[in-house]
Amino acid sequence: MELTTISRRNNVFVKFGNKFWRSKYLLLMILPAIVFYIIFCYVPMYGVLMAFKDFKPRLGVWNSPWNGFDNFVRVFEEPKFWLAFRNTLIIGSVKIVIGFLGAVTTALLLNELRMIKTKKTIQTIVTFPHFLSWVVVSGFVFSLFAYNGAINSLIKAMGGDRTNFLANKNFFFGLVFASDIWKEAGWGSIIYLATMAGIPQDQYEAADIDGATRLQKIWHITLPGIKPTAILLLIMSVGGVLSAGFDQILNLGNPLIREDVNIIDTYIYYHAIVGSDSAGVGTAIGLFKSVIGFALVITVDRIAKACGERGII
Amino acid sequence: MKKYQQLARLPLRPRGSSRDRKIQGLDVIICVILCIYALLIIFPFWNAFVISISTEDAYLHSDLLLWPTQLDLSSYKQVFADKNLWSGFGITMILLIGGTLYQLFFTVITGYALSRHNWTGKNLVMNMILVTMFFGGGMIPYYYLIRDLGMMNTIWVMIIPGAIDTFNMLLMRNYFASLPVEMEESAKIDGANDIIIFVKIFLPLSLPMLATIGLFFAVGNWNSWYNAMLFIPDNRKIWPLQQVLRTMIAKVSSNIENPEAREGYSEGLTMASIFFTIVPMMSFYPFLQRFFVKGIVVGAIKG
Q1: Which of B113, B121, B278 is nearest residue A136 as measured by Cβ atoms?
Q2: What is the pLDDT of residues B22-59, one digit of tens each?
Q3: Is B256 a residue whose pLDDT tops 70?
Q4: What is the pLDDT of residue B299?
Q5: Interchain CB contact of A254 with B (< 8 Å)
Q6: Which domain holds residue B290?
Q7: How far does A126 lie from chain B, in Å, by closest CA?
Q8: Quick check: B258 contacting A, CB < 8 Å?
Q9: Predicted pLDDT of residue B21
Q10: What is the number of structural domains in chain B?
Q11: Are residues A254 and B254, on separate chains, in Cβ contact within 8 Å?
Q12: Residue B112: CATH number of its domain
């Protein structure tokens, strides 16, 4: 009798305890993840406080004195930062557009190619560069566009003069876009190819009966078929527009044009890690970037939903 | 499992309705465009290869090196005698094997735990993880975290922080969640605990998925240089291959400032080193391609 009253009184706790104990092995499996995310994701998030502090490494984040928005003011007064910001927007948005067009075009061409063996080989070739690091790709770019490189030799053979492409920041943007297409278009096409393969065949059969040409079928069936996937991927890529590719810019850059072609991330690296800007300033830039990035994702998601598409949030 | 194997093949499947019709003009045009595209992909490889087996004289004075005029393997001799490259290769092999297994272990157990529905606090943990996909501290706080953890200039900085890749972890979770839950229930009735169920039932069933994720981790480790550049500035002995290569390429890019002043045939050496790093991947890729394709297709459909 006594026992039942006790167990009834503690019912909630006992139940909770039992459930907890029953799943002890699963909890054991999740424990490393909790520790991992707290240390490597949440501690840096807490470190964002540095943006509002005059950070002194020996005092730590908590004990460093507050300095309000001084770090932000210092960043926003720096013309080189605004140059980096502008470069980021240009490089990031152009890369989204050309990346999308490149992937869809490649997918359409591969989808329409009916020689299966050739198709397989070409697909292997064009997806491979995705697995190279930007270190290697920058080596290729240098080998092609260097003063004595292949492109210059070709120009010279055709009677022109050698140009130092890599020292000219106007060419640099072109190289960034070209190398990005070279590396990622083939890989990006896979997702669209898979989507195209999922389009119901009867739509094409019905179009055949109505006497549609191949181009008409592409325009009226294939492209609308990949539209939801395309919009989803575009929304996801907009969030990364301010990232613009740290690896790529860092590796393709060289001391001559480095300061002119900085993007936000390389700016942080060259100024706050390699250079003499304070950690607070570097953190402030990072925070500025992630706030804008987050706002962009929300905005694009809302717009997509307003247009009747499936969002991501 | 069948379902995923089918998905992996999807991109290569011909469109049924047009298969039996004869080749038209459009097919020829498409084929030509794609072949040109493939050649544009191959050309940088070929160009780099030719530079690596040519003499400096040929590199500087021929019009367009489409074919090596004088065959010269001294660049490769230099590469194979280069201590830095071999030490980088050794470190990269450690990352490739140790790092990949380490990442696989933690990513998979986390994915499994999150795929089971019956434990306390799961939603909290799940939300805690999802938040990190949208917010982050940024480069500088992370830099000071690594410094405070005492991982600067140690090999651990290239392994430990990579334990869980959120995207692949969610991929794994979705895969486990798609397997029939009845298997777990019947094993529970037979007295198995969660660890036994995971190791004996779910793990063997998910080997293809494990291979896919493991390969992505392996490529990431093979290409790893970012952590070394940021956190191992002073300890060249533990630089991975890609970081060693990066410094060599930086030397070539210093030719950019003053193209006429040259010291040694650094282009040939660099291109030979590039092949030293990419040949292993080039030789495996054609056989492993389907696993990679599967990863991205499943990820996109599920995620």
Answers
A1: B278
A2: 677 888 999 999 999 999 999 999 999 999 988 888 88
A3: no
A4: 65
A5: yes
A6: 1-6+75-303
A7: 6
A8: no
A9: 59
A10: 1
A11: yes
A12: 1.10.3720.10
In a domain, B159, yes or no: yes
Domain contains B69: no
In A, which residues are within 8 Å of B169 by CB distance? 33
Residue B140 and residue A273: Cβ atoms within 8 Å? yes
B196 falls within a domain: yes
Question: Is B175 within a domain?
Answer: yes
DSSP A33: H
Q: How far is B44 from chain A (nearest CA, A)?
A: 6
Q: Do B27 and A112 touch (CB under 8 A)?
A: yes
Cβ contact, residue pair B296, A34, below 8 Å: no
Domain boundaries, chain A: 2-63, 74-306
Measured distance CA(B221)–CA(B95) in Å, rounded: 6
Mean pLDDT across chain B, nearest whole number? 86
Q: Count of A–B CB contacts within 8 Å?
A: 319
Partners of B44 on chain A (C-beta within 8 Å) are: 140-141, 143-144, 182
Q: Is B290 on the interface with A (CB under 8 A)?
A: no
pLDDT in tens, chain A (313 residues): 455 555 555 677 777 787 778 888 999 999 999 999 999 999 999 999 999 999 888 888 888 899 989 999 999 999 999 999 999 999 999 999 999 999 999 999 999 998 889 999 999 999 999 999 999 999 999 989 988 888 888 888 888 888 888 888 889 999 999 999 999 999 999 999 999 998 999 999 999 999 998 899 999 999 999 998 898 888 788 888 888 899 999 999 888 888 899 999 999 999 999 988 889 999 999 999 999 988 888 888 888 888 877 766 6
The DSSP element (H or E) to which A92 belongs, if any, is helix A79-112
Residues 2-61 of chain A whose Cβ lies under 8 A from any Cβ of chain B: 16, 19-20, 22-23, 25-30, 32-34, 36-37, 39-48, 50, 57, 61
CATH topology of domain A74-306: MetI-like fold (1.10.3720)
Nearest to A133 among B42, B129, B225 (CB): B225
Q: Can you tell me the ipTM of this complex? A: 0.88
Tell me how far CA of residue A268 lies from CA of A79, A85, A169, A259, A288, in angstroms. Answer: 14, 11, 20, 12, 12
